[in-house]
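Entry 12.
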Amino acid sequence: MTATRTTPAGHAPDAVDAPVPLRRLVPLSAQHVLAMIAAPVSTVFLVAGTLRLPPAATASLLSAVLLLCGAGALLQSLGVWRIGGRLPFVMLPGGAATALFLQIAQDHGAPTAAGAVFLAASLLLAVLPLYARVVRLFPPLVMGVTVLLIGIAMIRVAARLVTGPDGTGEPRAVLLAALTVAATVAAYVLLTGVWRQTSVLIGMAAGTLVAVTTGLGAVTPAAGSGFALPAFLPFGTPRFDVVASLPLLVFSLTTLAEITGQTVLNSETVGRTPAPERDVPRVARADALVSLAGGLFGTSLMVTSAENIGIGRLTGVRSRFVTAGAGALLIALGLATPVSRALAGIPEAVVGGSALVVYAVIAVMGVEMLRRADLSGTGTGSLTAALALTAGLLPLLSPDLYAGFPGWARTILGSGVVAGTLTAVLLTALLNRFRSPTAPPGSRDAD
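Predicted 3D structure (tokens):
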């Protein structure tokens, strides 16, 4: 049993450590599940559609992701030793991490992508003793460039789910994807609260309904019933290629900055004094360990999410036992194979339409991060962002640009995310040495 914390005055338990009666715990936990369920479902369908997985493999992957989301929520909420932040967190398959996983799988094969997950999670564990130094390499400018490039790259991948691998889309597939996007937008605009947060899932349901009723698409659920565990090593024995894994390796380091922000935000939300030097390594360890488990079941990196923080603010319930309850519900869903097998039959065009929305939002998140950086004309931030985005967009706009380079160079330079992120990190470090001595203390140039 976890010890109850007390406030500085020593009179009452912190709200984050307060138990919740079962009659309230179940509906409150279900709210958190509804708010985050769209992310794992849409992510699995994007992976399955991109890698052309059969319905049975899609169902198995969805079961694995739900189980890992549940285990991650339990670990982060309850904590074991120095693993888990003991904060009301849930865990999701990272959208950006999934994008990079798919990039590696398409370029080097799914076994290499699975190996990249192991390498990236291991790297995250290895650098935690150097947390304070590593996190300084990824200020908002670098994070913004990275996330924006990931969003742009994955919009192209999501479009292929609609058009097919040859890039020529059938009108009915394009129409079905457009209707899915329209339903998602309508749900987001018209609904409120937790239902608004499930707008992607509602859009997928609406798109599937349109496909079935109009003949624009077909639903083909996987066979099976009852309860079952997901497939172990679904892509075969992982292949470890450090150069091919660079996109995920670089991304795993950037997550330290995101984890820091989310941990501080969550601590403040539940009324706990933020202690990033203590809590961030704990949160990151849980992320890394669940990601290592995910590598065994074909998933990309699993990341702690702040999506549930808004629900905590809305309901006023700050207890970490509520998100622990959400974790238990997710595990139950992951074991219920009829649910995952039924969902596995959603048409690809519907998945593609939902994915377009998800990854467009990721691109906008990158823009928002860049807004927090100093991009004024008097500093070096604007030049750094411009050159980093150029390095990242060149491989997307001119795929054969580095065709004559050695294989290792093509892997690094040909990945827009890696090229852009490394350019941003190097230029930030280099140009800051030449910053103006009169730069305002709060600007990026004075950091």
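Annotation: Residues 137 and 426 are 9 Å apart (CA to CA). The first strand starts at residue 90 and ends at 93.
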